[in-house]
Write a structure and sequence with these properties.
Heat Shock Protein 90, alpha+beta, rod-shaped, five-stranded mixed β-sheet, about 425 residues
C-alpha cells in the first residue's frame, strides 16, 4: 500500500524545486534590470528555501517553513516594483501548496491565514495606513480571485478525501473477503489432506493384510504340525527348535512389516537433505508384496551420479507421492488383468528428477487435463477418492518448489517428479 507521506514528500520536493527555479530566474532578471535590492531579496529567499530543503528534520516542519516563506514572499511582492504578475501567480498557487502539502484541516488554516493577510493589506491601504504597488481595485480583484481559487481547491480536496474514504472502505471490504476466501481455501485444503491421508491409510491396512497373510499361514501351519507331531509322540528337541526358530523368523518378518508402515505413517518431519533412492526403496518395502501378488515387475534405473544426488524437503512427503503413483499404476493394471508383462520402471535422472513409467494402457486423451483435479477419478465408485494425484502435485509444488507432470506413452503413462535446480530451505509443508 502506498504511504501518503511518500506522496506528500514528492509533492514537497517538486514544489520546492519549482520555487528554486522561479526565484533563480527572477533574481537574475532583476539583477540585470538593476533591481539590485529586489534581486538580493530573491536570492535571500532562495537560500532559505534551499536550507529548508537540505536540513534533516521532519517533513511537517519543512512544510510549515515552506508555507511561511511563501507568505513572506507574497508580502515582498506586494511592495516590490514591476512584480504585479508574479504576485498574482504566487497568490493563486498558494492554496495548492496549503492543501496538497497538508491535510484538509491544516490546508484550511493556512489558506485562511493567507486570505486574512491579503484582506488586511487591502483594508489598511483603503485607510491610507499602508500603500502597496497595487491599487485598491487590483488588491480587491486579487483577493476575490484568491478566494475563488481557494474554494475550488478546498472542494477538490474534500472530494478527494471522500474518494479516499470510499477507497479505504472498499479495500477493507476486499481484505475481509480475501481473508475469508484464504481461510476457506485453507480449511478446504485441510479437509482434502485428511481425506487423502485416510485413503492412504486404507491402502496401507490392505497392504498389511496382504503381507501378513503368508507369514500367518506359515505360522498357523507350523503350529498345526507341532500339535500333530506332539499328539503322535514324534517330537524331539531338534524339531521343536526348528519349528520354534521358524515361527520366530516369521514373527520377526511381521514385526519388520509393521515397523516399515509405522515409519511411513510418522508425522511430517522438518525438511532435510536425503537420497531419493532411499525414499523409493522404503516405498517398495511397503508395496513390494502387493506388486508380486499382482505379477507386476518393478525396475529401478539410476546411475552412480543420480544415486549421489541429494533432495531437499520432507522425505516422508516424497514417499507419499511415490506411493500414490505406484498405487494408481497397480489399479490401472488391475483394470486389464489379462495383460502380460506388466512392468513399472522407476528412473532417477542425473538431475534428480524421478520418472515413473508403466505399460498399463494410459489415460484417455479427453481427460488428461482433468487428472490433477481434486475428486476426479476414473475408478469405480468406492474404489478411489480422486485425491492422490491432486495432493501429490500439491506436495511437489509447496514442499519441494517442484512439480508433478504427466506424459502419455504409446502403451502407458509417464509421471515425472520434477525438483528445482536449487533447493530452498525453510518452506512450509502441506
Amino acid at each position: 500500500m502506498v504511504d501518503i507521506k511518500d506522496i506528500v514528500l514528492k509533492r514537497y520536493k517538486r514544489f520546492t524545486l519549482i520555487t528554486i527555479v522561479y526565484l533563480t530566474i527572477f533574481g537574475i532578471m532583476r539583477y540585470y534590470n538593476n533591481e539590485i535590492l529586489n534581486s538580493y531579496f530573491d536570492f535571500f529567499i532562495l537560500l532559505i528555501v534551499l536550507i529548508n530543503y537540505k536540513l534533516k528534520y521532519s517533513l511537517e516542519k519543512k512544510i510549515l517553513l515552506f508555507l511561511f516563506i511563501s507568505i513572506c514572499l507574497l508580502i515582498f511582492l506586494l511592495y516590490s516594483e514591476n512584480t504585479h504578475n508574479t504576485g498574482w501567480l504566487w497568490s493563486l498557487a498558494f492554496p495548492a501548496f496549503s492543501f496538497l502539502l497538508n491535510n484538509k484541516k491544516e490546508g484550511i488554516k493556512w489558506t485562511i491565514l493567507y486570505g486574512v493577510i491579503l484582506l488586511s493589506i487591502l483594508a489598511l491601504q483603503m485607510l491610507h495606513i499602508l500603500i502597496s504597488q497595487y491599487t485598491n481595485y487590483e488588491l480587491f480583484v486579487l483577493f476575490s480571485v484568491y478566494i475563488s481559487g481557494a474554494f475550488l481547491m478546498y472542494t477538490f480536496q474534500k472530494e478527494l478525501d471522500m474518494y479516499n474514504e470510499n477507497l479505504r472502505e472498499l479495500n477493507n471490504s476486499l481484505e475481509i473477503k480475501v481473508s475469508k476466501a484464504v481461510k476457506e481455501n485453507r480449511e478446504k485444503d485441510t479437509i482434502l489432506n485428511i481425506q487423502s491421508k485416510q485413503a492412504q491409510m486404507g491402502e496401507m491396512v490392505s497392504m498389511i493384510a496382504h503381507q501378513w497373510r503368508q507369514p500367518l499361514n506359515s505360522i498357523s501351519a507350523s503350529a498345526i504340525r507341532l500339535q500333530l507331531e506332539s499328539d503322535m509322540n514324534l517330537l524331539d528337541k531338534e524339531k521343536i527348535t526348528t519349528i520354534s526358530n521358524f515361527i520366530q523368523d516369521k514373527t520377526q518378518d511381521m514385526s519388520e512389516i509393521i515397523n516399515s508402515f509405522l515409519e511411513f505413517s510418522k508425522p511430517i518431519t522438518n525438511s532435510e537433505y536425503f537420497n531419493s533412492v532411499d525414499a523409493i526403496q522404503k516405498v517398495l518395502t511397503i508395496v513390494g508384496t502387493q506388486f508380486t501378488i499382482h505379477s507386476i515387475n518393478l525396475n529401478i534405473v539410476y546411475s552412480e551420479e543420480s544415486d549421489k544426488k541429494k533432495i531437499y524437503g520432507s522425505k516422508n512427503l516424497l514417499e507419499q507421492v511415490i506411493l500414490n503413483l505406484l498405487i494408481n499404476t497397480r489399479d490401472a493394471f488391475n483394470e486389464k488383468p489379462s495383460s502380460d508383462n506388466k512392468t513399472i520402471t522407476i528412473k532417477i535422472e542425473q538431475s534428480g528428477n524421478i520418472l515413473i513409467k508403466d505399460n498399463a494402457g494410459g489415460v484417455a486423451t479427453d481427460i488428461t487435463d482433468k487428472i490433477f483435479n481434486p475428486y476426479f477419478t476414473t475408478k469405480e465408485e468406492g474404489k478411489g477418492t480422486g485425491l492422490g494425484l491432486y495432493m501429490s502435485r500439491k506436495i511437489m509444488r509447496l514442499n519441494f518448489q517442484g512439480d508433478l507432470l504427466y506424459e502419455a506413452l504409446e502403451d502407458g503413462t509417464c509421471f515425472k517428479i520434477v525438483f528445482p535446480k536449487k533447493f530452498k530451505k525453510g518452506v512450509d509443508n502441506v
